[in-house]
# Entry
Amino acid sequence: MSRMAMPYVCGFFTDPTVFKRACAASYAAGHRGHQAFTPYPLHGIERLMGIRRSWIGRPVLFMLLFGAFCGFLMQVWMLKYDWPLVIAGKPFNSWPTYVVITFESGILMGALSNLAIVLLVACRILPSTKTTLPLDRLTDDTFCLAVPVTEGRSIAELDGWMTAQGAESTRHYLPPTSELSHA
# Structure
């Protein structure tokens, strides 16, 4: 099921401290569904915007441990049962020799599940040719706070609110009507 596109008011900032204050004020004002676009990471912005800690780490940790377990069992099976070799008089299941492959197989499974399953599917960030930035300079030196126009708020009201928070300019994102008819 696809989500219905909403109109947004985007406020653009060049000063990161003013931008952080605007993000905190947006959460305090009760705006939900707001988004922040930054040219570089701003630490603590999630807390200011009221975004909870992500659940993505839990399935990735599970897959990492599962991959390490499978890598360890693979080595035990190969070196003890499938093709046992006596190397320097050591036992067939000498676990210190398995550490590197166990670690690497765990990292491989964790990374693949993080990229393919969790991030792309659960966060709905599959690549698209329709992705556009609200402003071309957004990835250079401009910060953007996008607040959805919800019931009880108008575009003009959010424009004034953005300007009062220190936005240097504002733009409106109005979804095309064709997207609304397909939803």
Notes: The chain is about 45% helix and 10% strand.
